[in-house]
Write a structure and sequence with these properties.
Chain lengths: 293, 282
Amino acid sequence: MLKRVHFPSSLLPYLLVAPQIIITIVFFMWPASQAIYQSFLIEDAFGLSTEFVWFENFQVLFEDEEYHKSFIRTGFFSAAVAFLSLSVALILAAYADRVIRGAMTYRTLMIWPYAVAPVLAGALWLFMFNPTIGIFPYLLDMVGYDWNHKLNGGQAMALIIMAAAWKQVAYNFLFYLAAMQSIPKSIIEAAAIDGAGPVRRFWTLILPLVSPTTFFLLVINAVYAFFDTFGIVHAITSGGPAGATNILVYKVYADGFIGLDLGGSAAQSVILMILVIAMTVVQFRFVEKKVEY
Amino acid sequence: MIENRPLLTFVTHLILVIGVVIVALPIWITFVGATHDPIRMLQKPIPMWPGTHLWENFTTAFFGAGPSGNGAPVWRMMLNSMVMALTIAFGKIAISIISAFAIVYFKFPFRMGFFWMIFITLMLPVEVRILPTFEVVADLGMLNSYAGLTIPLIASATATFMFRQVFLTIPDEMLESARIDGAGPMRFFWDILLPLSRTNIAAMFVILFIYGWNQYLWPLLITTDSDMTTIVMSIKQMLESAEQTPEWNIIMMTALLAMIPPIFVVIAMQKLFVQGLTETDK
């Protein structure tokens, strides 16, 4: 952690950490403690009176059926996004790993959705699935399927899952390809000599060998689906129709800034913070285990 | 490749091409949408092949006042986005590298305390503490300013960690010989540490530039003045106005312009980008 050879204590190290620490205190510590404090208060929408109510906000939240639904919805959404983007990325990486020349060209062509902002990803998918002019509702109509995500909650959920997964495929692909390319070629060759075909080798060799990457990506994807998808939801559905896509991170925003339920929103913030901390701890454990096969 | 199976090689390329098509389709449709006139964009189905109005749409979006007629022109929003992305990227790198330097190379009271304080920020994404952070920024009078857009996002545990890792791999002999030659801490930092971590700084820059450019919720909350809007957040407003007066060609052109800088950075600095991504997250 500290260098064996180092400089003696003086004023300088304090000056060096000062900018980071000041910003951390003003914009992280202080707001986070405010969120915890506010979660114990009930304030009317005009901010005229506040009352200290201990855990009443949390109690209300835990008894609120809509919050339960939002939790389950978020879980389903994250699982679907992680499954979809991981499996597509895994298949594509497995094929790209076979290519001798051009693997890097395919990588270049695959990674750019990473650079697209979530809200833009949402806008693009919204346009493609626009019930009036979009290309996919038009094609679906030809086979007799009626698409209108503005009315159908299930379709709205499917749309945000596709948009979120699309954006994340690039990232997962990159990590899978790197993991597969670091598998020693001799192992694969030995299996081939023993008569294992490409499919067999994928299931019995490659998949187990990249499983540390899979665990790592699972956590990353879950965090992504939980917290980075606000823009996608906001652009495509704004939580609708009838709350069918109202996931937790959107609900914090909607309850706080639109519903002006400050205490309730703060209580949700606190719960989300606990979730993030739990996920970060899990992530670090996996990252530590990751190095040893 | 282990064995030579022409059929499998063909299938491999076929599947990869299908993959590329699926990945690129939304971006292709955006590009096509940006090359047609508004009337064509209201007919069903939307075109799949570029039209002839690319330049016209570009000038309308770039210099015009937005689809609803009261927004800022795209050049202004791109400027705001660029200022925000560059300030966040450079700011994060600057304050992270000096705090990592202090934590690794100095022994001073509360060193570990500071370290943990920085570590905790890693766990608090802006989405989960929006309301109180917004209040702090409002109290400081930083709404509708570049300072408000960037400073609250500048603290970075990730970058501090990465630089700490980099410094820990630099041999102790470097510092010993520098001290024998009479270099003070800042001299050592400028002449030895900075040059040694040049590629890491560049890799970090790519990741942070994209992070800064793609910020959405934060600018949405703290900018109400249309002169301060960023291009990424303008998309949502355009989608809302599209309910009444759909000008999909302009929306798609704006979306395209919003995507080009980060995509360009990723493609042009691909090697650094991959390095930055795998090093910061692992």
